[in-house]
């Protein structure tokens, strides 16, 4: 039997009981739930990753909906417990939902929400930061400086890679991959090669127009192409950033063989999910190729790193902070709360999960809809006409 978990309660007399497995930034999400007659219970347990047993005791006998986190294992056990407690909605406070067994949720009639869009630019900005930090060896140089080792300018001190005129490769040109591609093309005048299962039409139009703009200004225009395979991206690009979803088809997408295809001095960035890279193979590749650099926000066995990675000077590592800006995290909390609330209240699903701005306007009431429900079709939920 799990130990009781500590909770903070808002609006104790609310009709609907909504549980958040973590405190989340801002108060708008709490207020929106309270205004709609919810009793909000927030788990304040000092334990970063809650176990399935912890969450079962949070759900208890009566629970209308849960806002959960990407660190939690939302499978058959939790959805059956939520269903027994009368639950109708669950939302990850994340766009990725590889921690959720959507089929199990659907079986119990529980809607699964996620938080797209609000984190697109924030995450792309971190991918761009890691690209620069790795290419220009910023962390290594910072450590050197703090260690008191700097004794004067030298022609060979921390020489890295220039981005301008080089090629940026994007694998998974969805919302975040496309935003990152635009930043690197526009900010650093890089040529683009991308691989996705689908054509990134809006990205292609943007890059084409930007190339024409540069040409009209007498500057060297950039080029772009959609690659026929991921391997083509790996062979040709100087900086490669990974942005696909994690599923069975993308597990270990970057393995030993594919690392070997990349340029010896390439930069590889991962802000998607850790298991997309075979991290053991990566550590070995970093050891064998000191000019090859990586910027990692995510890890295969989070929160752990594979042995050897922490010692690699050619790796920049940060703890899964790509969406960590105040505006974004508050917005993610709002979208997650509105997904759960919308399902409890029987609202329809928003027509376009890529355009969630109306839910994020702090000066207006949000639309009466669930911003983003990933199993809406399977549950045959109505679509909002707003
Ligand atoms: N590090 C972080 O904090 C952080 C923040 C936000 C999102 N993410 C991760 O980023 C992912 C992408 O988010 P998004 O909003 O851009 O999603 P998205 O659905 O808009 O984009 C994903 C893209 O990947 C493509 N794709 C799928 N399988 C592929 C494959 N085998 N090869 C190439 N492309 C493939 C899809 O077609 C799609 O265009 C999320 O699922 C999440 O796991 C991480
Ligand atoms: O999928 C996500 O949203 C991230 O990993 C956290 O922002």
Key features of this structure:
386 residues; alpha/beta; Rossmann fold; seven-stranded parallel beta sheet; six-stranded mixed beta sheet; 14% strand; globular; binds nicotinamide-adenine-dinucleotide
Topology overview:
Elements: E1 7-10, E2 16-20, H1 28-35, E3 38-43, H2 52-59, E4 65-68, H3 76-84, E5 89-92, H4 102-107, E6 111-113, H5 120-135, H6 138-146, E7 167-171, H7 175-188, E8 191-195, H8 201-216, E9 224-226, H9 230-236, E10 239-242, H10 256-261, E11 267-270, H11 279-288, E12 293-296, E13 315-317, H12 326-345, H13 357-360
Helix pairs in contact: 1-12, 2-3, 5-7, 7-8
Write up this protein.
With 386 residues, the protein is of the alpha/beta class. It has 13 helices and 13 strands. It folds into two domains: 7-114 and 347-379, NAD(P)-binding Rossmann-like Domain (Rossmann fold, 3-Layer(aba) Sandwich), CATH 3.40.50; 120-317, Rossmann fold. Strand 5 (89-92), helix 4 and strand 6 (111-113) form a beta-alpha-beta unit.
Q: Any idea what the CATH superfamily of the largest domain is called?
A: NAD(P)-binding Rossmann-like Domain
Element order: H for helix, E for strand: EEHEHEHEHEHHEHEHEHEHEHEEHH
Count the domains: 2
Strand content: 5-15%
Tell me the Rg in angstroms. 23 Å
Quick structural overview:
The chain is α/β, with parallel strands linked by helices. It contains 13 helices and 13 strands. It has helices at 28-35, 52-59, 76-84, 102-107, 120-135, 138-146, 175-188, 201-216, 230-236, 256-261, 279-288, 326-345, 357-360, and strands spanning 7-10, 16-20, 38-43, 65-68, 89-92, 111-113, 167-171, 191-195, 224-226, 239-242, 267-270, 293-296, 315-317.
């Amino acid at each position: 039997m799990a130990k009781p978990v500590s909770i903070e309660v808002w609006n104790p007399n609310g009709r609907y009981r909504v549980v958040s497995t973590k405190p989340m930034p801002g108060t708008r999400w709490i207020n929106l739930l309270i205004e709609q007659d919810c009793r909000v219970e927030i788990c304040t347990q000092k334990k970063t990753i809650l176990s399935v047993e912890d969450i079962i005791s949070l759900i208890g006998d009566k629970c209308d909906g849960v806002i959960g986190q990407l660190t939690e294992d939302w499978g058959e056990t939790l959805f059956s417990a939520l269903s027994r407690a009368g639950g109708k909605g669950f939302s990850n406070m994340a766009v990725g939902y590889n921690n959720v067994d959507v089929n199990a949720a659907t079986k119990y009639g529980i809607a699964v929400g996620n938080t797209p869009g609000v984190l697109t630019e924030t995450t792309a900005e971190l991918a761009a930061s890691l690209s620069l930090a790795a290419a220009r060896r910023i962390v290594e140089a910072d450590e050197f400086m703090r260690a008191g080792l700097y004794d004067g300018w030298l022609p060979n001190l921390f020489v890295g890679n220039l981005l301008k005129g080089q090629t940026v490769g994007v694998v998974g040109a969805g919302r975040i991959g496309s935003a990152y591609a635009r930043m690197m093309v526009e900010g650093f005048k890089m040529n683009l090669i991308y691989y996705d299962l689908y054509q990134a039409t809006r990205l292609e139009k943007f890059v084409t127009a930007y190339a024409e703009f540069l040409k009209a200004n007498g500057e060297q225009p950039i080029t772009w192409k959609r690659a026929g395979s991921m391997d083509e991206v790996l062979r040709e690009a100087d900086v490669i950033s990974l942005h696909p979803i994690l599923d069975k088809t993308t597990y270990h997408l970057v393995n030993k063989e594919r690392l070997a295809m990349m340029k010896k001095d390439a930069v590889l960035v991962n802000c998607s999910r850790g298991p997309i890279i075979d991290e053991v193979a990566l550590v070995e590749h970093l050891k064998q190729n000191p000019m090859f650099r990586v910027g990692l926000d995510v890890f295969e066995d989070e929160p752990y790193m594979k042995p050897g990675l922490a010692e690699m000077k050619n790796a920049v590592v940060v703890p899964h902070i790509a969406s960590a800006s105040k505006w974004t995290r508050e917005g993610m909390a709002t979208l997650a709360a509105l997904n759960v609330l919308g399902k409890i209240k029987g609202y329809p699903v928003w027509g376009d999960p890529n355009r969630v701005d109306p839910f994020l306007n702090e000066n207006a009431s949000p639309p009466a809809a669930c911003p983003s429900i990933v199993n809406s079709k399977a549950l045959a939920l109505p679509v909002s006409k707003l």
